[in-house]
Amino acid sequence: MSDFSAAWLDLREPHDHAARSRRLEERLLDWAKAHECRIIADLGAGTGSNRRALSTVLPAGQSWYLIENDPVLIEAGRARLDADARASVRYVEANLAQELETAVPADVDLLTCSALLDLASLEWLQRLAGLARSRNAALLAVLTHDGQIRWRPGDPFDARIATLFERHQRTDKGFGPARGGDAANLLADMLAGDGTVIRDTSPWQLDTDDRRMQQALLEGYVAAAGEIEPQEAEEIDGWNRQRLKMIEAGRSKLRVGHMDLLFLPR
Fold first, then answer.
1. How far, CA to CA in Å, does 259 sit from each of 103, 136, 153?
2. N- to C-terminal Cα separation, the chain
3. 239: pLDDT strictly greater than 60
4. CATH superfamily of the domain spanning 6-148+174-206+257-265
5. Residue 214 burial (CB count, 10 A)
6. How many CB atoms lie within 10 A of CB 60?
7. Measured on CA atoms in the order 231, 218, 155, 158, is the torsion positive or negative?
8. pLDDT single digits (tens) 217-233
9. Measured distance CA(126)–CA(175) in Å, rounded
10. Strand 87-93 vs strand 138-152: parallel, antiparallel, or unpaired?
11. Nearest-angstrom CA–CA distance, 188 and 251
12. Domain spans in the chain, listed from the N-terminal domain onward
């Protein structure tokens, strides 16, 4: 959880696909049919999970540009490309912090991303909103962390860990100071006057048998909290040991909040 490795992306993919807002995908499908949506740019595509989830929803004849900066993820993603008669797919290696406007095709119909907005700065979100407006493109941003983390059974230290994690989320992730849990709402406000903006929740609902995913998230929360407040290492370690025991005993549930955002231009 503390990195963006292919192993982490593989672990989270089924949970991502289960959490996505079907309501927003249905609205996007209606728009795509009416507007001949063909050219799609997936920002920060990783190994292609967002494309795998969305390509079966949209009409046939799609042309996907998977824009990714990490050559290791690009190689892993290319190895996962399947024979999809509905779409052509190509990877574009680009640094979105510097090359957002030039990496996206001029005739793009749909901009999409997954688990990206909370890593972005206010300035980058403004650039993304401006790009959608200037290209008259729709935008679907899914699985943006909204700051909500709820463990069951609860623990008095849960709230402190959540606070420290959110502070860590707002450090520079490569796009400038990140906006964390505010990002989706900020982008929605930027686009509100230029078309239809729809939001929906898309939380991970992890049950007692989702041990590997809970353990990976726990590891990431502990690492982030320790980086922000190293002087609280003893309290963080104690919380970590208690949580790990509950996960391993099959007694732990976890809800991680996300927001999906759909923008449809006029």
1. 25, 23, 24
2. 38
3. yes
4. Vaccinia Virus protein VP39 (3.40.50.150)
5. 24
6. 10
7. positive
8. 999 999 999 999 999 99
9. 12
10. unpaired
11. 37
12. 6-148+174-206+257-265
- Residue pLDDT, tens place only, 2-49: 467 999 999 999 999 999 999 999 999 999 999 989 999 999 999 999
pTM exceeding the 0.90 threshold for the entire prediction: yes
Distance, CA of 54 to chain centre:
14
Instruction: Output the six-digit token pair for 63.
Output: 């042309």
Alpha helix segments (H runs only) across the chain: 6-19, 22-35, 49-54, 71-80, 96-103, 122-135, 158-169, 183-191, 211-228, 233-248
Which residue reads 């063909």 in tokens?
38
Please report the sign of the dihedral spanned by the C-alpha atoms of residue 27, residue 29, residue 30, residue 34.
positive
DSSP string, 55-116: TTTSPS-EEEEEEES-HHHHHHHHHH----TTEEEEEEE--HHHHHHHHS-TT-SEEEEES-
> What pLDDT is attached to residue 212?
98
Joined together, the tokens standing for residue 27 give 């609205």
**What does each C-alpha distance from 264 to 141, 145, 160, 239 come to in angstroms?**
12, 22, 38, 44
Contact at 8 Å (CB) between 129 and 185? no
